[in-house]
Amino acid sequence: MIDRKKCIAVIGGSQPTSKEAELAEEVGRQLAKQDAILVCGGLGGVMEAACKGSSSEDGITIGILPGDNRQTANPYIQIPIVTGIGYARNVAVVKSAQAVIAIGGSYGTLTEIGHALQSNIPVIGLNTWVISKNGQQDSSIIPAQNPAEAVKKALELAID
Questions:
Q1: Which residues lie across from 136 on neighbouring strands?
Q2: What does the alpha-carbon distance between residue 107 and residue 92 come to, in Å, rounded to a whole number?
Q3: How many CB atoms sit inside 10 A of residue 95's CB?
Q4: Cα–Cα nearest to 126, from 107, 142, 109
Q5: Once rounded to an integer, what is the mean pLDDT over residues 108-131?
Q6: DSSP the chain
Q7: Other residues' Cβ atoms within 10 Å of the Cβ of residue 1
């Protein structure tokens, strides 16, 4: 049987703050150092920063693209997957992963978090959404204080 590498999705906004971009780049580096495959939406922002970090450590990056053109992938994507399905590709991003690391983000990131949680895929959060239900904070998003902790938790909690 083949010993498969863990696939960890990194999700976040297309226009991150400089701090979020730094966090994403370090998450990418840490994933590569742990021999994990980085899966993302393949475009810019947090996705590009994470892929840049992974590439700097010779990591593997997969981008699941919303459109019909593989050329839209950020320059650090090694394996572009063209879908032509727009935002529906968010489901494919998280379902391709064994755990998700969310960094910052807007409503697209929130939808990915929802799809992951609905599928029992662990979500680790760095400077991202906090959710509540009926006025009570929901603890489904596992907080991390820094990129190394986020990667450690993602790899420990990754589903098979």
A1: 133
A2: 17
A3: 14
A4: 142
A5: 97
A6: ---PPPEEEEEE-SS--HHHHHHHHHHHHHHHHTTPEEEE-SSSTHHHHHHHHHHHTT--EEEEESSS-GGGS-TT-SEEEE---GGGHHHHHHHT-SEEEEES--HHHHHHHHHHHHTT--EEEES----EETTEE---EEE-SSHHHHHHHHHHH---
A7: 3
Distance CA 1, CA 23 (A): 35
pLDDT band with cut points at 50, 70 and 90 for residue 4: confident
The answer to whether position 1 is within a domain reads no
Handedness of CA 7, 14, 117, 31 (dihedral sign): positive
Residue 150 lies in a domain: yes
Q: Could you give the CA distance from residue 8 to residue 24 in angstroms, rounded to a whole number?
A: 13
pLDDT 10s digits, 144-159? 999 999 999 999 999 9
- For the chain, the domain total comes to 1
Q: Which residue has the tokens 């760095």?
A: 126
User: What is the pTM (predicted TM-score) of this model?
Assistant: 0.97
How far lies 107's CA from each of 11, 37, 54, 114, 152, in Å? 11, 25, 25, 10, 26
CATH number (domain holding residue 151)? 3.40.50.450
pLDDT score at 2: 58
